[in-house]
């Protein structure tokens, strides 16, 4: 749970930086947010979650 919250906060910060830097317009950002929201309710969400958890575990093992 802590990892999920951290990823959400990190992605939110990146989104804000992109919006403020004019690298990402408001409508594409809204579409990206809605896509992520609806993707989370599909059957592929557990697979994505497992993949991200395995990537995080791998990064944890690499860290000193």
Outline the structure in words.
With 64 residues, the chain is mostly helical. It has one domain (2-62). The chain has helices at 2-20, 26-39, 45-62. The mean pLDDT is 82.
State the main characteristics.
mainly alpha; 80% helix
Quick overview of this protein structure:
80% of the residues lie in helices and 0% in strands.
Please give the structural blueprint:
Blueprint: H1 2-20, H2 26-39, H3 45-62
Helical residues, percent:
over 70%
Q: Mind describing the biggest β-sheet?
A: none
What's the tally of helices? 3
State mean pLDDT (0 to 100 scale): 82
Radius of gyration: 14 Å
What is the terminal separation in angstroms? 23 Å
Order of helices and strands: HHH
Per DSSP E runs of 2 or more residues, the count of β-strands stands at: 0
- Shape descriptor reads flat
Low-confidence stretches: none
Q: Strand portion, in percent?
A: under 5%
How many domain regions? Answer: 1
Secondary-structure class: mainly alpha
